[in-house]
What we know:
Shape: elongated
Largest sheet: 6 strands, parallel
Amino acid sequence: MAKRVTLKDVAQLAGVSYQTVSKVLHGQIQVTEQTRERIERAVQSLGYRPSSIARSLRWQRACLIGYSWAPSPPGQFNTILDQFLQSMTQEAEKAGYHILCFPHRANHNLDLYRELIETHRVDAFVISSVEYDDPRVNFLKQAAFPFVAFGRTNAEQDFPWVDVDGGAGMAMVVRHLVERGHRQIGVLAWPSDSRVGHNRLEGLLAAFRECGLELPETLLKRGDGNSTFGQQAAAEILQLPQTQRPTAIIAFNDFMAIGAMQAARELGFKVGEELAITGFDDTPLIQYLNPPLTSVRQPIWEVGQHVIRMLIDILEGHPSAQRTLLLAPELVVRASSDFAV
Protein backbone atom coordinates (compact mmCIF):
# COMPACT_ATOMS: atom_id res chain seq x y z
CA MET A 1 0.00 0.00 0.00
CA ALA A 2 1.37 3.43 -0.96
CA LYS A 3 2.53 5.67 1.86
CA ARG A 4 -0.04 8.31 2.75
CA VAL A 5 1.01 11.84 1.80
CA THR A 6 1.23 14.15 4.83
CA LEU A 7 1.36 17.88 5.44
CA LYS A 8 5.10 17.53 6.11
CA ASP A 9 5.59 16.00 2.63
CA VAL A 10 3.80 18.97 1.07
CA ALA A 11 5.79 21.41 3.21
CA GLN A 12 9.11 19.83 2.24
CA LEU A 13 8.32 20.01 -1.47
CA ALA A 14 7.02 23.60 -1.20
CA GLY A 15 9.98 24.72 0.94
CA VAL A 16 7.89 25.98 3.87
CA SER A 17 6.92 24.75 7.33
CA TYR A 18 4.07 22.30 7.72
CA GLN A 19 2.34 24.81 10.00
CA THR A 20 2.34 27.29 7.11
CA VAL A 21 0.84 24.67 4.77
CA SER A 22 -1.91 23.88 7.27
CA LYS A 23 -2.82 27.51 7.85
CA VAL A 24 -2.81 28.34 4.14
CA LEU A 25 -5.06 25.38 3.30
CA HIS A 26 -7.51 26.45 6.01
CA GLY A 27 -7.41 30.13 5.04
CA GLN A 28 -5.98 31.17 8.41
CA ILE A 29 -3.03 33.28 7.16
CA GLN A 30 -2.07 35.44 4.21
CA VAL A 31 1.11 34.58 2.29
CA THR A 32 2.70 35.87 -0.89
CA GLU A 33 1.22 34.74 -4.17
CA GLN A 34 4.46 32.89 -4.99
CA THR A 35 4.31 30.93 -1.71
CA ARG A 36 0.66 30.07 -2.22
CA GLU A 37 1.37 28.84 -5.75
CA ARG A 38 4.25 26.64 -4.50
CA ILE A 39 1.98 25.09 -1.89
CA GLU A 40 -0.83 24.50 -4.38
CA ARG A 41 1.60 22.91 -6.88
CA ALA A 42 2.96 20.65 -4.14
CA VAL A 43 -0.55 19.61 -3.08
CA GLN A 44 -1.48 18.72 -6.66
CA SER A 45 1.84 17.03 -7.44
CA LEU A 46 1.74 14.78 -4.39
CA GLY A 47 -2.05 14.22 -4.47
CA TYR A 48 -2.39 15.36 -0.87
CA ARG A 49 -5.78 14.77 0.74
CA PRO A 50 -6.44 15.83 4.35
CA SER A 51 -7.70 13.20 6.75
CA SER A 52 -11.31 14.07 7.48
CA ILE A 53 -11.32 11.83 10.57
CA ALA A 54 -8.23 13.45 12.09
CA ARG A 55 -9.50 16.89 11.22
CA SER A 56 -12.91 16.20 12.75
CA LEU A 57 -11.28 14.97 15.97
CA ARG A 58 -8.96 17.96 16.11
CA TRP A 59 -11.70 20.51 15.40
CA GLN A 60 -14.45 18.47 17.10
CA ARG A 61 -16.51 18.99 13.97
CA ALA A 62 -18.22 16.84 11.37
CA CYS A 63 -17.03 19.16 8.56
CA LEU A 64 -20.51 18.82 7.04
CA ILE A 65 -23.06 21.53 6.28
CA GLY A 66 -26.68 20.40 6.07
CA TYR A 67 -28.83 21.72 3.26
CA SER A 68 -32.46 20.94 2.55
CA TRP A 69 -34.58 21.91 -0.41
CA ALA A 70 -38.17 21.51 -1.57
CA PRO A 71 -38.32 18.69 -4.15
CA SER A 72 -39.63 19.71 -7.58
CA PRO A 73 -42.82 18.12 -8.91
CA PRO A 74 -42.29 15.06 -11.14
CA GLY A 75 -41.24 16.02 -14.64
CA GLN A 76 -39.90 19.45 -13.64
CA PHE A 77 -36.28 20.46 -13.18
CA ASN A 78 -34.86 23.23 -11.02
CA THR A 79 -31.90 24.96 -12.65
CA ILE A 80 -31.69 27.50 -9.83
CA LEU A 81 -31.17 24.68 -7.32
CA ASP A 82 -28.53 23.08 -9.54
CA GLN A 83 -26.51 26.31 -9.79
CA PHE A 84 -26.92 27.00 -6.07
CA LEU A 85 -25.74 23.52 -5.08
CA GLN A 86 -22.73 23.61 -7.37
CA SER A 87 -21.68 27.02 -6.09
CA MET A 88 -22.08 26.04 -2.43
CA THR A 89 -20.25 22.75 -2.92
CA GLN A 90 -17.23 24.38 -4.54
CA GLU A 91 -17.02 27.13 -1.95
CA ALA A 92 -17.44 24.71 0.97
CA GLU A 93 -14.72 22.39 -0.32
CA LYS A 94 -12.26 25.29 -0.38
CA ALA A 95 -12.72 25.54 3.39
CA GLY A 96 -12.59 21.78 3.99
CA TYR A 97 -16.34 21.22 4.30
CA HIS A 98 -18.88 19.18 2.34
CA ILE A 99 -22.63 19.57 1.81
CA LEU A 100 -25.07 17.01 3.23
CA CYS A 101 -28.29 17.29 1.22
CA PHE A 102 -31.72 16.18 2.37
CA PRO A 103 -35.20 17.15 1.09
CA HIS A 104 -37.82 18.92 3.18
CA ARG A 105 -41.56 18.91 2.59
CA ALA A 106 -44.07 21.73 2.62
CA ASN A 107 -44.78 21.31 6.35
CA HIS A 108 -41.10 21.91 7.22
CA ASN A 109 -40.80 18.85 9.47
CA LEU A 110 -38.15 19.71 12.05
CA ASP A 111 -37.44 16.19 13.30
CA LEU A 112 -34.56 15.63 10.88
CA TYR A 113 -33.00 18.97 11.78
CA ARG A 114 -33.22 18.03 15.45
CA GLU A 115 -31.72 14.58 14.83
CA LEU A 116 -28.79 15.95 12.82
CA ILE A 117 -28.02 18.45 15.56
CA GLU A 118 -28.30 16.00 18.45
CA THR A 119 -26.16 13.37 16.73
CA HIS A 120 -23.50 15.97 15.78
CA ARG A 121 -23.62 14.94 12.14
CA VAL A 122 -23.56 18.50 10.81
CA ASP A 123 -21.88 21.68 11.98
CA ALA A 124 -24.38 24.10 10.49
CA PHE A 125 -27.29 24.45 8.08
CA VAL A 126 -28.13 26.37 4.93
CA ILE A 127 -31.85 26.83 4.42
CA SER A 128 -33.69 28.08 1.34
CA SER A 129 -37.29 28.44 0.09
CA VAL A 130 -37.79 30.62 3.17
CA GLU A 131 -41.37 31.74 3.78
CA TYR A 132 -43.14 33.97 6.28
CA ASP A 133 -43.10 32.62 9.86
CA ASP A 134 -40.71 29.91 8.70
CA PRO A 135 -40.49 27.37 11.56
CA ARG A 136 -36.91 26.41 10.66
CA VAL A 137 -35.71 29.94 11.41
CA ASN A 138 -37.33 29.96 14.86
CA PHE A 139 -36.13 26.44 15.65
CA LEU A 140 -32.49 27.05 14.69
CA LYS A 141 -32.40 30.40 16.49
CA GLN A 142 -33.78 28.83 19.68
CA ALA A 143 -31.28 25.97 19.38
CA ALA A 144 -28.48 28.54 18.90
CA PHE A 145 -27.26 26.40 16.00
CA PRO A 146 -25.31 28.06 13.15
CA PHE A 147 -27.23 28.66 9.92
CA VAL A 148 -27.46 31.05 7.00
CA ALA A 149 -30.55 31.41 4.80
CA PHE A 150 -30.97 31.98 1.11
CA GLY A 151 -33.98 34.24 1.47
CA ARG A 152 -35.66 36.49 4.01
CA THR A 153 -38.74 36.10 6.18
CA ASN A 154 -40.60 38.47 8.53
CA ALA A 155 -38.88 41.84 8.87
CA GLU A 156 -38.63 41.55 12.66
CA GLN A 157 -36.63 38.30 12.45
CA ASP A 158 -32.88 38.82 12.95
CA PHE A 159 -30.71 36.12 11.38
CA PRO A 160 -27.99 35.89 8.70
CA TRP A 161 -29.29 35.70 5.14
CA VAL A 162 -28.39 36.33 1.51
CA ASP A 163 -31.12 37.13 -1.01
CA VAL A 164 -31.79 38.51 -4.48
CA ASP A 165 -33.85 41.68 -4.82
CA GLY A 166 -36.73 40.27 -6.83
CA GLY A 167 -38.73 43.48 -6.44
CA ALA A 168 -35.96 45.42 -8.15
CA GLY A 169 -35.92 42.84 -10.94
CA MET A 170 -39.63 43.26 -11.55
CA ALA A 171 -39.27 47.04 -11.57
CA MET A 172 -36.65 46.69 -14.32
CA VAL A 173 -39.11 44.66 -16.39
CA VAL A 174 -41.91 47.22 -15.98
CA ARG A 175 -39.68 50.13 -16.97
CA HIS A 176 -38.39 48.19 -19.98
CA LEU A 177 -41.93 47.53 -21.23
CA VAL A 178 -43.12 51.08 -20.58
CA GLU A 179 -40.14 52.47 -22.49
CA ARG A 180 -41.32 50.41 -25.47
CA GLY A 181 -44.82 51.86 -25.28
CA HIS A 182 -46.78 49.26 -23.32
CA ARG A 183 -49.55 50.52 -21.04
CA GLN A 184 -51.81 47.47 -20.68
CA ILE A 185 -49.71 44.81 -18.92
CA GLY A 186 -50.88 41.44 -17.63
CA VAL A 187 -49.19 39.74 -14.67
CA LEU A 188 -48.86 36.02 -13.90
CA ALA A 189 -47.98 35.90 -10.18
CA TRP A 190 -47.51 33.35 -7.42
CA PRO A 191 -50.07 32.69 -4.63
CA SER A 192 -50.61 35.51 -2.13
CA ASP A 193 -48.90 33.59 0.71
CA SER A 194 -45.60 33.32 -1.20
CA ARG A 195 -42.91 35.45 0.45
CA VAL A 196 -40.82 35.65 -2.73
CA GLY A 197 -43.93 36.30 -4.80
CA HIS A 198 -44.99 39.11 -2.47
CA ASN A 199 -41.58 40.76 -2.75
CA ARG A 200 -41.68 40.61 -6.55
CA LEU A 201 -45.23 41.94 -6.70
CA GLU A 202 -44.35 44.85 -4.39
CA GLY A 203 -41.55 45.88 -6.73
CA LEU A 204 -43.78 45.53 -9.77
CA LEU A 205 -46.62 47.60 -8.28
CA ALA A 206 -44.20 50.31 -7.14
CA ALA A 207 -42.90 50.55 -10.71
CA PHE A 208 -46.47 50.68 -12.03
CA ARG A 209 -47.19 53.66 -9.77
CA GLU A 210 -43.92 55.30 -10.79
CA CYS A 211 -44.94 54.99 -14.46
CA GLY A 212 -48.52 56.16 -13.85
CA LEU A 213 -50.04 52.72 -14.57
CA GLU A 214 -52.69 50.64 -12.87
CA LEU A 215 -53.03 46.87 -12.63
CA PRO A 216 -56.70 45.86 -13.02
CA GLU A 217 -57.80 42.71 -11.19
CA THR A 218 -58.66 41.15 -14.56
CA LEU A 219 -54.97 41.34 -15.58
CA LEU A 220 -53.53 39.82 -12.39
CA LYS A 221 -53.58 36.02 -12.19
CA ARG A 222 -52.16 34.02 -9.29
CA GLY A 223 -51.27 30.34 -9.30
CA ASP A 224 -48.58 27.67 -9.21
CA GLY A 225 -45.39 28.62 -10.99
CA ASN A 226 -45.61 26.07 -13.79
CA SER A 227 -46.20 26.20 -17.52
CA THR A 228 -49.71 24.72 -17.22
CA PHE A 229 -50.88 27.61 -15.06
CA GLY A 230 -49.06 30.08 -17.28
CA GLN A 231 -50.83 28.77 -20.36
CA GLN A 232 -54.28 28.78 -18.75
CA ALA A 233 -53.91 32.22 -17.15
CA ALA A 234 -52.48 33.84 -20.28
CA ALA A 235 -55.29 32.38 -22.38
CA GLU A 236 -57.85 33.98 -20.07
CA ILE A 237 -56.42 37.48 -20.26
CA LEU A 238 -55.67 37.28 -23.98
CA GLN A 239 -59.36 36.55 -24.66
CA LEU A 240 -60.54 39.67 -22.86
CA PRO A 241 -62.20 42.38 -25.00
CA GLN A 242 -59.64 44.30 -27.04
CA THR A 243 -59.92 47.43 -24.87
CA GLN A 244 -58.94 45.36 -21.79
CA ARG A 245 -56.46 43.01 -23.44
CA PRO A 246 -52.77 43.46 -22.56
CA THR A 247 -50.01 44.12 -25.07
CA ALA A 248 -47.47 42.61 -22.66
CA ILE A 249 -47.43 39.84 -20.05
CA ILE A 250 -45.01 39.66 -17.13
CA ALA A 251 -44.55 36.17 -15.66
CA PHE A 252 -42.99 35.60 -12.24
CA ASN A 253 -40.82 32.79 -13.59
CA ASP A 254 -39.73 31.36 -16.92
CA PHE A 255 -42.00 28.31 -16.72
CA MET A 256 -45.11 30.48 -16.58
CA ALA A 257 -43.72 32.63 -19.39
CA ILE A 258 -43.22 29.54 -21.57
CA GLY A 259 -46.84 28.54 -20.93
CA ALA A 260 -47.97 32.05 -21.82
CA MET A 261 -46.05 31.89 -25.11
CA GLN A 262 -47.82 28.64 -25.96
CA ALA A 263 -51.23 30.17 -25.21
CA ALA A 264 -50.41 33.20 -27.35
CA ARG A 265 -49.41 31.05 -30.31
CA GLU A 266 -52.59 28.97 -30.03
CA LEU A 267 -54.70 32.15 -30.02
CA GLY A 268 -52.91 33.59 -33.05
CA PHE A 269 -50.76 36.25 -31.34
CA LYS A 270 -47.21 36.83 -32.60
CA VAL A 271 -44.95 37.00 -29.56
CA GLY A 272 -42.21 39.55 -30.08
CA GLU A 273 -44.19 41.44 -32.72
CA GLU A 274 -47.63 42.20 -31.30
CA LEU A 275 -47.38 40.75 -27.78
CA ALA A 276 -44.45 41.03 -25.34
CA ILE A 277 -43.79 38.29 -22.79
CA THR A 278 -41.13 38.28 -20.06
CA GLY A 279 -39.99 35.73 -17.49
CA PHE A 280 -37.80 35.54 -14.40
CA ASP A 281 -34.73 33.36 -13.60
CA ASP A 282 -33.11 33.33 -17.05
CA THR A 283 -33.36 29.54 -17.21
CA PRO A 284 -30.86 27.87 -19.55
CA LEU A 285 -32.24 27.26 -23.06
CA ILE A 286 -34.86 30.06 -22.99
CA GLN A 287 -32.54 32.02 -25.29
CA TYR A 288 -33.27 29.32 -27.89
CA LEU A 289 -37.05 29.70 -27.76
CA ASN A 290 -38.80 31.27 -30.74
CA PRO A 291 -38.59 34.14 -30.04
CA PRO A 292 -35.88 34.12 -27.32
CA LEU A 293 -37.37 35.05 -23.96
CA THR A 294 -36.58 38.24 -22.05
CA SER A 295 -35.91 37.32 -18.43
CA VAL A 296 -34.45 38.52 -15.13
CA ARG A 297 -31.18 36.78 -14.29
CA GLN A 298 -30.47 36.08 -10.64
CA PRO A 299 -26.82 35.97 -9.47
CA ILE A 300 -27.32 32.49 -8.05
CA TRP A 301 -23.66 31.48 -8.23
CA GLU A 302 -22.73 34.51 -6.15
CA VAL A 303 -25.53 33.74 -3.68
CA GLY A 304 -24.09 30.26 -3.06
CA GLN A 305 -20.59 31.68 -2.55
CA HIS A 306 -21.75 34.37 -0.13
CA VAL A 307 -23.93 31.96 1.88
CA ILE A 308 -21.03 29.57 2.46
CA ARG A 309 -18.47 32.29 3.17
CA MET A 310 -20.83 33.85 5.71
CA LEU A 311 -21.41 30.46 7.33
CA ILE A 312 -17.70 29.56 7.45
CA ASP A 313 -16.97 32.90 9.13
CA ILE A 314 -19.57 32.05 11.79
CA LEU A 315 -18.09 28.57 12.30
CA GLU A 316 -14.56 29.96 12.53
CA GLY A 317 -15.63 32.38 15.23
CA HIS A 318 -15.26 35.64 13.34
CA PRO A 319 -18.70 36.45 11.89
CA SER A 320 -18.98 39.51 9.70
CA ALA A 321 -20.67 42.59 11.06
CA GLN A 322 -22.81 42.50 7.89
CA ARG A 323 -25.34 39.78 8.69
CA THR A 324 -27.52 40.31 5.61
CA LEU A 325 -26.77 40.76 1.93
CA LEU A 326 -29.25 41.74 -0.81
CA LEU A 327 -27.91 41.18 -4.34
CA ALA A 328 -29.16 42.93 -7.46
CA PRO A 329 -30.51 40.92 -10.43
CA GLU A 330 -29.96 41.72 -14.12
CA LEU A 331 -32.55 42.18 -16.87
CA VAL A 332 -31.61 40.26 -20.02
CA VAL A 333 -33.60 41.70 -22.92
CA ARG A 334 -34.32 39.41 -25.87
CA ALA A 335 -36.68 39.39 -28.84
CA SER A 336 -39.81 38.36 -26.91
CA SER A 337 -40.16 41.95 -25.65
CA ASP A 338 -37.66 44.11 -27.52
CA PHE A 339 -40.08 45.87 -29.85
CA ALA A 340 -42.08 49.09 -29.72
CA VAL A 341 -45.86 49.36 -29.80
